[in-house]
Each structure stands twice: as structure tokens, then as C-alpha cells.
């Protein structure tokens, strides 16, 4: 199992903990941020390949920010692969 603790930049969440199992996203845990929304994102990407999740969430912005928690997750997944 591969795992990564990624420090986010420019978002309310501070960190994302990710575990991959057999090439698929097994778990995602956001530290800080909008709890309900981030639990939803974590549940939705579970079972996806990192590439599939990246293609769906990369580039999403939060309000006037240049990034978002989903975009930071995409960056973390890119780092893992």
C-alpha cells in the first residue's frame, strides 16, 4: 500500500492523507476544511485510479482562490504517481 501525507496550499484544509491499494484510491482524509464536503469528495474518489480522479477534479477553484481542496487532492495524487 502506498501512502502520502500532503500539505495543502491556499485552502482551508491543512493536509490530505491518501492511501492507494493495488493502484486504486483506498482512502482520503482531509485535515481541516469543510468537513461534510470533503467527506463526500473522499467517498466519491474511493476505488478510482489516481488518473481518473485527477481528470475529474484538477483545476477546480474555490471562490476567488486559484485552487481548491479537490484541486489540492489532484496535485497530491500527481505527486504519488
Report on the architecture of this protein.
With 81 residues, the chain is an alpha+beta fold. It has three helices and three strands, in the order βββααα. It has helices at residues 35-45, 50-57, 69-80, and strands spanning 2-7, 13-21, 24-32. It has a three-stranded antiparallel β-sheet. Strand 1 (2-7) and strand 2 (13-21) form a beta hairpin. 31% of the residues are buried.
Uncertain spans, ≥5 residues at pLDDT below 50? none
- What is the overall shape? globular
Order of helices and strands: EEEHHH
The total count of helices amounts to 3
The fraction of residues assigned to DSSP E strands is: 25-35%
Cα-atom radius of gyration: 11 Å
Q: Give the overall pLDDT as a whole number.
A: 97
Strand order of the largest sheet: 1-2-3
Q: What class do helices, strands and sheet pairing give?
A: alpha+beta
List the helices and strands and how they pair.
Layout: E1 2-7, E2 13-21, E3 24-32, H1 35-45, H2 50-57, H3 69-80
Antiparallel strand pairs: 1-2, 2-3
Give short descriptive properties of this protein.
globular, 3-stranded antiparallel beta sheet, 81 residues, alpha+beta
In short:
The protein is an alpha+beta fold. It has helices at residues 35-45, 50-57, 69-80, and strands spanning 2-7, 13-21, 24-32.
Amino acid at each position: 500500500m502506498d501512502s502520502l501525507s500532503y500539505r495543502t496550499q491556499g485552502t482551508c484544509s491543512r493536509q490530505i492523507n491518501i492511501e492507494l491499494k493495488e493502484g486504486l484510491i483506498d482512502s482520503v482524509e482531509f485535515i481541516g476544511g469543510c468537513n461534510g464536503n470533503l467527506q463526500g469528495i473522499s467517498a466519491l474518489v474511493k476505488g478510482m485510479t489516481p488518473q481518473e480522479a485527477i481528470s475529474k477534479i484538477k483545476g477546480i477553484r474555490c471562490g476567488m482562490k486559484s485552487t481548491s481542496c479537490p484541486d489540492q487532492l489532484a496535485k497530491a495524487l500527481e505527486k504519488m504517481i
